Amino acid sequence: MSTSKSIMEITKAEWLAALRMSAADVPDAVIVEGSWWRQQRTDWRLSYLTDVEELPFPDIFVGAWRGLRVAYCCAYGAPRAVEIIHLFSQLGARLAIQIGTCGGLQPQLNPGEIIVPTVAIARDGVAHLYGGKEEIRGDPLWSANARSAILERGINVHQGTHLTWSSIFAQDRRLIEAWRRAGYLSVDMETATTLATAGYFGVPALSMLAVWDDLIHGKSFLDPLAKDEQNALDASNQAVYEVALQLVEMINTK
Question: Which residue in 104, 77, 117 sits closest to 225, CA to CA?
Fold first, then answer.
C-alpha cells in the first residue's frame, strides 16, 4: 500500500522544511494580486518591503514591513491564488488580503474606484473545494477597516456583492447583462477562492479591487482610458497595496 501523501495531507512541519523556514519566520500576512503584469507588479510591491527573499518555490516572496513579515505573490487566477493562500494560511499567517483589478458591472462605477466586497459569489471552480458555498463573505471588521482607509485617501469605495468567475475570456454580453441584473457590482478571478481558502484554515480575509473594465458598456482592458481615468486607476492600484500594508500594521492590535 502506498504511503505517499496528497498535498492536502502535507503537514505544517513538512511545508516549513520544504521552504527552509523556521516557525518564527512564518509571515504575519499574505497578499496575493491577480495580474498579467507579474514582473511589473512584483517589482513595485516588493519595493516597499525590506529584507526581501524569494522562497524555494518560485515567484513567492517574503519581506519585512515595520516589524512584521509579509508574503507577496502575483497569483493570476483561482488555481494559482489557492496555492499561495493555502500554503501561508496553513503555516499560520494571521491575515490574507486579495488585491488587483476587476471589471465593473454597474453603471455607477468608474475606473479607479475600489470594490471591497462584503460577499463574493463563487463561480471560479476552486472555492467549493475548501468548503466555500456559493456566497463567501469577507471578514467584516477587516473589510470595514479597508474601506475607511481607502476613503481617507479620497477614493470612492463600494461594498456589496462581487462575482468571482473562472476566466476573463469566457464572458459574453449575455453573461455580463445577467450579472448586472443580478446586482453584482464587479467581477474578478480570485477573490472567492482567497476568502474560502483562508476561511478553511480560520484566517480572516478580505479583498480590495480597483475597477478597470467598464463591462456593461462593452469596454475591456484593451480599450484605452481617458487621461483622468488612467490617473485614477493608477492611484487605486497604488492605494490597494498601501492600504493592505496599513492593515498588516494593525494585526497585533486585533
Answer: 104
